[in-house]
Specification:
The chain has 47 residues and is mostly helical. Helix content is 34%, strand content 0%. It starts with 5 loop residues before the first helix and ends with a helix. Keywords: Plasmid.
Length: 47
């Protein structure tokens, strides 16, 4: 059913009585991957 431990699953269900439990995660990229951008000035000067 779920990869969550039983206690965590019970607590989640108490907080979300009508919530949907997602049992599978899809990590496939739907579009082109994000472009890499420099975050710091030091990364820009090294290029």
């Amino acid at each position: 059913m779920s990869a969550m431990p039983p206690l965590l699953l019970k607590l989640w269900r108490e907080q979300h009585p009508k919530g949907h439990e997602q049992t599978n995660l899809n990590f496939k990229v739907q579009g082109p991957p994000a472009a890499l951008v420099p975050l710091f000035k030091s990364e820009i000067s090294e290029e």
